[in-house]
Write a structure and sequence with these properties.
The structure is a homodimer. Helix content of chain A is about 30%, strand content about 25%. Chain A is of the alpha/beta class and about 325 residues long. The first copy, chain A, has 2 domains: about 10-170, 3-Layer(aba) Sandwich (Peroxisomal Thiolase, Chain A, domain 1); about 175-330, Stage V sporulation protein AD (Peroxisomal Thiolase, Chain A, domain 1). In chain A, helix 2 (about 45-65) packs across helix 3 (about 85-90) and helix 6 packs parallel to helix 7.
Chain lengths: ~325, ~325
C-alpha cells in the first residue's frame, strides 16, 4: 500500500555547498562549492549564511541542469531553523512556487520523494533543496558554539552544508532515476537524550526499511548500497541490530552519510555528522556520482529525522523520529 | 504551467476542534468539538494541548469517514510551533506515514493540496491536519499571554483550533471535490511589523489569485466565494486593493476565515483571527458544509502564511509570505 512508484523521475542535476570542516573531510574535493574561511558565506548572521548556502545550491543545481528558475515548476524546501526561515530567505529570490517541508534531518529524502512524485505524476520539473548550518543549529537546539560546551561521545556534529537536486520527467543520458519512494511513520524511540540523535532515529530507519523490503518483496542483496541519512556511529550500530531483529542483515551494504562526510576520528567528530545538509551534501557529492558513473547500479536512501525542539524534551516528551525512503537506480 | 488538475480528490470528511473563544464566536455551534474551559484539553502544557487538538481532529475526521487509521495511506501535517512538534506528538499514535509540512498559516491549504495530488495521482487516501493554539503561539512569537502585553489595532488573535480532512479518490455522494490547486511563490512584502501579519500576507494572496485567474482563464464571477485564510480586516482590505490593481474586482465574493471565526467587534479581536488552525476550522465548520449543502457551487480557498520566526525580523529581515490555492466544487 505504501510504496509509491515513480516511473519518470530523473535526477538530472545536483549541486552541493558546504563549510570549511566539510571541505577538510574525505568528500572535500567532490563538494561543488566550499567556504574556505569562517563559514559565514559573506553574511552577518549564521541564519543568513545558511540561506545563502541554499541560494547557491539551488542556483547551482538549476544551472547544472541547463535550465533557468522559470523552468522549474515547484520547489520542495526545508531546513532545521525555527519556521524554516533559512529556506524562505534562501530561495525567495528565485520566484519558484514553493512547498515548504519539515521532516527534521529527513527533509532531504522527503523533498526528493515529493519531487519524484510531482515529476512522475504531475509532469513537473521539481527542485529539492535543504540545508543545515552548524552554528545556527547549535545555538538553537543546544548552546551557541562560542560557549564551547563539552560534547558527549554519542553527540554528532551538525553539518554546515546545503544541496539541491533537480528532478525532471525528461530522461537524460546518465541521470539516475528515482524508481520508488516510501514515506515513514513516526516512531517513538523512548529516548530523551538530546546528545544522542542516532539512538532516537535508528528505530524509524529500521521500521521504514523493513516495511519497504516486506512490501516490495525485495531483499537487501538487491541493492548495492543501503544508505541512511545521519545515524552516525551510535545510531548505525543500533540500526543494524534493529533491522537484524526484524529479519534482515544489511551490514555488508549499509553506509551512513553521517559517517561519510568527515574523517570522524581525525577530525574528532565523535559519533559523526548530522543535519538536513548532511545527507543532502553526501547524496550530491558521493552517491549520485557513483550512480552516474555506474559504479553502483542501485541504492536505497533512507533520510532520518529526530522530531523535537529545544523545549519539547524539557516538557517531558521523548524524541520521536521519522525516516523516508527513496530507491534510486543508475538506469 | 502551475495549475495542478486533481480529477479524483474528494473531501469525504472533516472534523474541527477549537477553544472557548472560538466556541463563543459565530461558528461555535458548528465546530465539532469545543473546549469549554481553560483551553488546556486536559494537558499540562499549551504545546501538549495543541497536540491533543490535532489528535482529536485527526481521529474525528477518520471516524467521520467511516474508516480506520490503517486505511489512511498518508498524512500531511503541520503547525506553527518550532519544528512542528504539535503535529509530531498529535498524530504519532495513529501510525500513519507522515509528510511534515511548513507553510506557516498557509499550511492548511498546502496540506489539502498535497492530499488532493496524492489522492488523484497516487490513489492514496490522505489525511490533511493542521493546528494552532493561542497560548503556544503567543509565547513563541511574541509574549506569554500572562504578560498581558498590549495589542495594536492591526494585530490578529491566533486561533486555538485544529481541523483534519480526509481526501480520497473514492467518490462519495455529496462530498466536495478539490478540482485544482496552485502552489504559491514567496512574496516579499517589505513589511517588518510583527503586529501586522495581514499586511505581510496580502501580496502573496494577491499574487497567487492573479496567477490562478490568468492561467485558468477564469473570472472571479466563476466562483461563488473566494476565501482567504487569515488576512484579517487590515490584510483583506489590502488584498482587495492589490487584486484590483492586478485587474480583478473580487470584493463582492471575497471572505476571510480570520473575519469569519470571531464576532470581531463584540469579542474585541482587533483585526481578526489567524493561525494554521483558523482557516482549517473555518473550512471545516463553515465552507465545506456550504458546499455539501449546495448552498454554494464552488469556491477558491487561498491559505495565507507569513514566513518569519521570533528572531528573523530582529536580524533585519522583512516578513515574506506565501499563499497556496485550492479550487473546490460541490459536485
Amino acid at each position: 500500500m505504501g510504496i509509491i512508484k515513480t516511473d519518470s523521475s530523473y535526477m538530472i542535476s545536483s549541486y552541493s555547498v558546504a563549510g570549511s570542516l566539510e571541505k577538510a573531510g574525505p568528500l572535500g574535493d567532490k563538494i561543488d562549492f566550499c567556504e574556505d574561511g569562517d563559514d559565514a558565506f559573506g553574511k552577518d548572521t549564521w541564519e543568513k549564511a545558511e540561506s545563502e548556502m541554499q541560494r547557491l545550491a539551488a542556483t547551482g543545481a538549476i544551472g547544472a541542469a541547463g535550465i533557468a528558475p522559470r523552468d522549474v515548476d515547484v520547489a520542495f524546501s526545508g531546513d532545521l531553523i525555527n519556521q524554516c526561515i533559512a529556506s524562505t530567505h534562501g530561495i525567495m529570490s528565485l520566484g519558484i512556487p514553493d512547498c515548504g517541508l519539515f521532516g527534521a534531518c529527513s527533509t532531504c529524502a522527503e523533498s526528493i520523494l515529493l519531487g519524484a512524485v510531482f515529476s512522475s505524476y504531475v509532469k513537473n520539473t521539481a527542485l529539492a533543496v535543504t540545508s543545515s548550518h552548524n552554528c545556527s543549529a547549535e545555538r538553537q537546539f543546544r548552546f551557541p558554539v562560542e560557549y564551547a560546551a563539552l560534547r558527549t561521545p554519542t553527540s554528532q556534529w551538525t553539518v554546515t552544508g546545503s544541496a539541491a537536486f533537480v528532478v525532471s520527467p525528461d530522461k537524460r543520458d546518465g541521470a539516475p532515476r528515482v524508481t520508488e519512494g516510501l514515506l515513514g511513520r513516526i516512531a517513538d524511540s523512548g529516548t530523551d537524550d538530546l546528545n544522542n540523535m542516532g539512538a532516537a532515529m535508528a528505530p524509524a530507519a529500521a521500521d521504514t526499511l523493513a516495511r519497504y523490503l516486506k512490501e516490495s518483496g525485495k531483499s537487501p542483496a538487491d541493492f548495492d548500497r543501503i544508505v541512511t541519512g545521519d545515524l552516525g556511529a551510535e545510531g548505525s550500530s543500533l540500526f543494524l541490530e534493529l533491522v537484524y531483529a526484524l529479519g534482515y542483515d544489511v551490514s555488508s551494504r549499509h553506509a551512513d552519510c553521517g559517517l561519510d562526510i568527515y574523517d570522524t576520528e581525525r577530525q574528532d567528530m565523535h559519533s559523526g555528522g548530522s543535519g538536513c545538509g548532511c545527507s543532502a551534501v553526501v547524496m550530491s557529492a558521493k552517491y549520485l556520482p557513483m550512480l552516474r558513473g555506474k559504479e553502483i547500479k542501485n541504492m536505497l536512501f533512507i533520510g532520518t529525522g529526530a522530531l523535537m525542539n529545544a523545549m519539547s524534551v524539557g516538557q517531558g516528551n521523548t524524541i520521536p523520529s521519522i525516516a523516508h525512503l527513496v530507491a534510486l537506480s543508475s538506469d
